């Protein structure tokens, strides 16, 4: 969908979008249109329940006197009270109201003081995402009608300029959604790595390690997960260095392109969902794309461990003991607790190879996280209060919300075993926490946070900023975190 900025047009065509403040107060442009239409807009408001509250919307089709096909009124409440996130959400609302309305173009008159056209555009662009590449027989009336949104504002040139950076972030979110939506026969470790190689076009250095190289490095923990699959495992390193003088922030992602559970096979119902068990790696990839796309002044490394967890004759068995790259041994008691085994080697490798200033890993790690926080907040774990407050702030600002959960030596003891240095599962209790404790054994002294995104990378229902399906969660969170904690300093 095309997004453009232009001077405020007096007589829009297509879908004319106007804003209305609380108690039904029309914006200047809306009032002018109302006059041209002989009061049709205010009369429509009078006879409806629409009164300009934030989030409300109303459509008036073909008002006499106007060139527009339809007028869409959007409530903003009190503009001075709108947060940045409210503005992005309002923009997403434009797409929700206009995407399938029948008009090909929407003209948004953003003439209220305090409205941020760039944030509106960001929301609209993000909400327009669809994954429909496999629908070969879709009828035209099922496809979105809207092809372009024109934002009328005071200063189109500077809006256009400011939007370039935000568009890069939207493209990062889109990349994450594309990867997460892709089906497991098409997206497997090698094809995932091939997608990531494309990031070199944006100035990202991309290195791919295959199984032989990982074997050489001693990554038996990661490799054990992939050994029951016909697909070769991969470890991909993406480097964006917009600040050559500083130690990097490392983002590490779990990229299980399909998690069947392995020999500890998952139940059949809903197993298809485990195509998005690469969601953490998808977030890392999208974040790197966003940061490179907007040329962030920060040194950021993305590392993703890409494997397929399958149960063939070569698969790892419950009871196996493997030696991770760190030298620590792991007793595999459940082959479905594979994400932590992938991250164990990915984290250790990242720490050793890049000496990062900070590491943040993202993983669809535990079903228990979905039980505790559902689909609103991701849960995160860290011993570092500064990282914690930085993540929480970025979460509130972007809507990619995070909630802190505890780490403690008492939980750590729950993964001890007489057979090896640790086992890969605790008991059922505190399942997300014992998984985090497991990861903590592979990060050394590096300031680190683990974000369990199991509940948030996919949505079964429409949300404010995205439709059902892949949410793109996490890209805006990390983009904001980098802006606040690395670029602002
Ligand atoms: N990928 C799953 C976690 C998951 C489950 C994410 C449901 C999203 C929705 C992970 O690999 C897994 O299977 N974890 C097990 C761990 C258990 C065996 C200790 C789980 O959560 O059940
Ligand atoms: Zn699993
Ligand atoms: Zn998994």
Structural account:
The protein is α/β, with parallel strands linked by helices. It is 35% helix and 21% strand. It has helices at 28-36, 40-46, 84-98, 117-127, 156-181, 189-197, 211-217, 220-226, 279-293, 339-354, 367-373, 385-398, 409-412, 431-440, 475-487, and strands at 2-6, 15-21, 25-26, 57-61, 70-77, 105-109, 148-152, 205-209, 234-241, 249-259, 299-309, 321-323, 329-331, 358-363, 378-382, 402-404, 422-423, 448-452, 458-459, 469-470. The longest helix is centred in the middle third of the chain and has 26 residues, at 156-181. The relative contact order is 0.11. Residues 259, 261, 336, 338 line the site of one zinc ion.
Summarize the structure.
This protein is of the alpha/beta class and 489 residues long. The chain contains 15 helices and 20 strands.
Properties at a glance:
single chain, 20 strands, alpha/beta, binds ligand BES, 7-stranded mixed beta sheet, elongated, 21% strand, 489 residues, binds zinc ion
Bound ligands, named by name, code or SMILES: ligand BES, zinc ion
Strand content: 15-25%
Strand arrangement, major sheet: 8-9-11-10-14-18-15-16
Cα shape: elongated
Average pLDDT confidence is 97
- Rg, rounded, reads 24 Å
């Amino acid at each position: 969908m095309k997004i453009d900025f232009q001077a405020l047009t007096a007589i829009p065509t297509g879908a004319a979008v106007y804003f209305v403040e609380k108690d039904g107060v029309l914006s200047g442009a809306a009032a002018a249109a109302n006059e041209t239409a002989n009061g049709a807009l205010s009369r429509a408001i009078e006879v409806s329940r629409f009164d300009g509250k934030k989030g409300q919307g109303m459509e008036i089709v073909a008002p006499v006197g106007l060139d527009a096909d339809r007028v869409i009124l959007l409530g903003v409440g009190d503009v001075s009270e709108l947060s940045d996130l409210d503005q992005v959400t309002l923009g997403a609302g434009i797409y929700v109201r206009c995407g399938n309305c029948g008009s090909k173009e929407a003209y948004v008159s953003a003439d209220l003081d305090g409205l941020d056209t760039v944030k509106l555009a960001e929301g609209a662009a993000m909400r327009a995402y669809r994954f429909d590449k496999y629908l070969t027989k879709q009828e035209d009336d099922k496809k979105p009608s809207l092809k372009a949104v024109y934002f009328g504002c005071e200063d189109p040139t500077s809006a256009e300029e400011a939007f370039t950076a935000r568009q890069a972030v939207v493209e990062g979110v889109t990349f994450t959604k594309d990867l997460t939506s892709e089906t497991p026969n098409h997206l497997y470790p090698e094809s995932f790595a091939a997608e990531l190689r494309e990031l070199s076009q944006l100035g990202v250095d991309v290195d791919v390690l295959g199984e032989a190289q990982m074997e050489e490095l001693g990554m038996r923990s990661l490799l054990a997960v992939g050994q029951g699959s016909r697909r070769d495992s991969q470890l991909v390193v993406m480097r964006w260095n917009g600040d050559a003088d500083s130690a990097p922030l490392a983002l590490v992602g779990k990229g299980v392109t399909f998690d069947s559970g392995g020999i500890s096979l998952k139940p059949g119902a809903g197993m298809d969902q485990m195509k998005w068990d690469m969601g953490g790696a998808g977030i890392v990839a999208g974040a790197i794309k966003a940061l490179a796309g907007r040329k962030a002044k920060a040194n950021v490394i993305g590392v993703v461990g890409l494997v397929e967890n399958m149960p063939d004759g070569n698969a790892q068995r419950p009871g196996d003991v493997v030696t991770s790259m760190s030298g620590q041994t792991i007793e595999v008691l459940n082959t479905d607790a594979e994400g932590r085994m992938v991250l164990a080697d990915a984290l250790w490798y990242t720490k050793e190879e890049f000496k990062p200033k900070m590491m943040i890993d993202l993983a669809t790690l535990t079903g228990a996280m979905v039980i505790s926080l559902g689909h609103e907040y991701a849960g995160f774990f860290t011993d570092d209060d500064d990282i914690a407050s930085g993540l929480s702030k970025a979460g509130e600002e972007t809507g990619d919300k995070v909630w802190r959960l505890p780490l403690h030596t008492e939980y750590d003891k729950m993964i001890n075993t007489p057979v090896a240095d640790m086992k890969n599962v605790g008991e059922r209790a505190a399942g997300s926490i014992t998984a985090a404790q497991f990861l903590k054994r592979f990060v050394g002294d590096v300031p680190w946070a683990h974000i369990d995104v199991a509940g948030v990378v996919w949505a079964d229902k429409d949300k404010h900023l995205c439709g059902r399906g892949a949410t793109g969660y996490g890209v805006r969170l990390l983009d904001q975190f980098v802006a606040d904690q690395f670029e602002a300093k």
